[in-house]
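Page 37, top half.
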Amino acid sequence: MQITIIAPGSQGDVQPFLALGKGLLNDGKKVRLVSNQNYEEQVKLHGLEFWPIEVSMEDIIRTEKMREALESGKLLRSMARMGEELKKNAALLVERSLDACQGVDMIMAGISGLFTAHSVSEKLNIPFVQAYNIPFTPTKLFSGALFPKFPSWLGYRFSHRLTQQMVWQAYRPTDKIVREDILKLKKSPFFGPFKSESLKNDPIIYGISPSVFTRPEDWSDNIHLTGFWFVDPPENWTPPQDLEKFLQTEPSPLYIGFGSMSSQKPEEFTDLIIKTLEKTNERAVIYSGWGGLSGQNLPDSIIIVDLVPHAWLFSKVKAVIHHGGAGTTAAGLRAGIPSIIIPYHGDQPFWGHLVNKLNVGPAPIPRKNLTINRLVKAIEKVSTDQEMQEQASVLGKKIQEENGVDQAVAIINQIIK
């Protein structure tokens, strides 16, 4: 059986599908992954067939306009900017996806590839499975992923509809290029394809832990909650020697990393981090990422690293400070340690509020409101709050006992039958 996964976007968009793809591969399926060219090494490392889109997501994130939009904390502005980039690269994505889906048995995608994958599956008449690692189906039990503080008296289902519309309206200008100009399909309705028979009735698989929130009873039977999808290091992977040596020294350090989020003023941001660590007398492993965090003139209490598997690293630190991406949040929860979330945009505030609600981290600090004093207080909280530390440990053990990838593969096998 051949499956194509369409997953353009940031590291957080791609990584869950690396895990799921590897699980499908181990189950005897052939798996292709369509994504941005800068993920080629990672995808091939895990044995998946890679179909690159000749666009670097890192280059997009690093542009001045995108950095400004992300750091502004204004949802509409960042979504609009994302929409502009989608439109620029629409032809590349759909043409590569169309080629990669020829003759396959199933197409899968999450939010970043949803509408392209839906259109390609319609064009080729191939079954489509939606696969998400953030909540995207309306429910009355909690708010939508883009509106974590939505008033309950307005009805949480409405907040999910708003979330869907925010994502759709950012993509809608691209839809004409994809459906009408390239695929020669009828254009989508103004409010998107969410009420179409296909998207309503297609199987939906969520790579989210049931220990984080219970599967809503108002979800239909075609919607499944499996547990998080984690990528563990390949068997032949070895950590950098200098990092191993750093981690062997007491006390245990913090992890600080902001994934694909880019900073307008990386030198100032690095200075803020260093001064915070000096005030709290903490050691830290800092992920340089795409944020441009500088590794120059650092004290011995700090080490800068490139991409290191979270599954390995997070088990060796005492707390994680990050942007609140779904994948990084899940890795922190699995490690059983507290998280301090500094969200930039999108679903990141949702995860920050959820972590706080679960009492496994302090209240999130939006990136635009980040100061040394606020970060110092948050670090002191995770370092001294024993109840929070114990709650994080208990939740981590529950998640470690789950296997979301195996559950998802089993569901996919049922769908095939």
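Page 37, bottom half:
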Amino acid sequence: MRKEDLTVVSELAMLANPHATKEKYSEHLLDELKENPDLSFVAVYNGKIVGYVQADLCNDEAILEDIVVDKEYQGKG
């Protein structure tokens, strides 16, 4: 994931976090990206971001924070 991906990722984040606002969650995503850049990934299909995953470190373990796939691409294996 890169900083320039955050607009699309923020839209997708609403699927996993329907009670959050895009603006507020975008800040959270950016903070996580800065803190753990090696644990933030986007899924790309035909040049389009269709999902993302972010994890956080706790001691020596990675903890999955978010995993989201665009509804159009869910269930496709």
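Margin note: The chain is about 30% helix and 35% strand.
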